[in-house]
Amino acid sequence: MNNIDQFFTPNPVAFAASYLNYLQTILQGIDQAEIGRFIETILDARKRGATVFFIGNGGSAATASHFANDLSIGTNDYDMPFRVISLTDNISIITAIGNDFGYEEIFVRQLKIIGKKGDVLVGISASGNSPNVLKAFDHARATGIKTVAITAFDGGKMKLLADEGIHVPTALKEYGPAEDAHMVLDHLVASYLMRYVKRG
């Protein structure tokens, strides 16, 4: 059952209070050890000069772009940078692949060109069942690219495929709280890495 449907009320102030309280509950349910492992994975990629790729659809595509911005540019480190790319950002490439080969190919065909063994692929998907994300994960696993699943709902197939991940515990179809939490994870991780870099 969708919790948002249950606490909906025509009163916008009451709805806002319920939504924010529910979001707090969700955030408190995230396994902090999973966040720690993800940060260590990003730091390890930086140390090795590996690239971290982010992918996702819809709101998760925007989150992928935001992650790439915050981790690559936002950390303000150019001597040993975080090499982070969102594969959701080049609309010419995405539409060319989608038109010529199908939407399920939009990430995997980019990854085949610029991904290499030792890189990291981070999939962001509330359902964890997006075919284009799963196809990229299959390729990554076959070619030695580490996979990280940032999920919600029940985690879907992506959670099962991934080497590691961060799961946001929401009910099915609760896209708003799921994507809210994913953005909190972005800012949490970026805030940590920015300060980690500063301290040397």
Description of the molecule:
The chain is of the alpha/beta class. Strand 1 (51-56), helix 4 (59-73) and strand 2 form a beta-alpha-beta unit. Helix 2 (12-28) crosses helix 9 (175-198), helix 4 (59-73) runs parallel beside helix 9 and helix 6 (108-114) runs parallel beside helix 7 (131-143). It has 9 helices and 5 strands. A 5-stranded parallel sheet has the order 2-1-3-4-5. Helices cover 57% and strands 13% of the residues. The chain is globular. The chain has a single domain (31-198), classed as Rossmann fold (3-Layer(aba) Sandwich), CATH 3.40.50.10490.
Give a quick set of tags describing it.
single chain; 200 residues; alpha/beta; Rossmann fold; five-stranded parallel β-sheet; 9 helices
Explain briefly what this protein structure is.
The chain is of the alpha/beta class.
- Secondary-structure element series: HHHEHEHHEHEHEH
**Helix-strand category:** alpha/beta
Count of discrete domains: 1
How are the strands ordered across the major sheet?
2-1-3-4-5
| Separation, N- and C-terminal Cα atoms | 47 Å
CATH topology: Rossmann fold
Q: What would CATH call the architecture?
A: 3-Layer(aba) Sandwich
Give the CA-based shape.
Answer: globular
Radius of gyration: 17 Å
CATH superfamily: Glucose-6-phosphate isomerase like protein, domain 1
CATH class: Alpha Beta
Provide a count of the helices. 9
Write the layout of secondary structure elements.
Elements: H1 3-7, H2 12-28, H3 32-48, E1 51-56, H4 59-73, E2 83-86, H5 91-101, H6 108-114, E3 120-125, H7 131-143, E4 146-151, H8 156-161, E5 164-167, H9 175-198
Parallel strand pairs: 1-2, 1-3, 3-4, 4-5
